[in-house]
Amino acid sequence: MPALPLPLSTICALASEASLLPRVRMAIAIVAQEVFAEPQDTPGYPLRWNLAKTVLSPTEAQAASMMVGLVVSPPLLTAAAAVGTTDPAAMAAAITDEQLLNAVRMGWNPVSGVGPPAAGAQPAT
Length: 125
Known about the structure:
Blueprint (H helix, E strand, L loop, with lengths): L7 H8 L5 H16 L8 H11 L4 H12 L2 H9 L5 H7 L2 H16 L13
Helix pairs in contact: 1-4, 1-6, 2-3, 2-4, 2-7, 3-7, 4-7, 5-6
């Protein structure tokens, strides 16, 4: 495992940054709407749909708990580290909306309980 680009205390501060929380809530709501529009034969759809139903109006507590997993995703860590400061607000501002949305999309299956595809499994078409 490669070294973290930021110390854990700095990552913790970013995960607690108040200015990032509303953006996380909106990203969760947007991705939930995307999941509702997926075909029902999407792998893991029932679990994905159930998570979307549960978090469509994410509470602050739900968003805060998901934010911990989001800020440790490599793209968000890289964006935060590139700022060159440990100021949580500055690091949060360096994370683009697209990076945030992509992190939510990438984390949707694990959070919903959808496991990785079996070895040799073909994706649904």
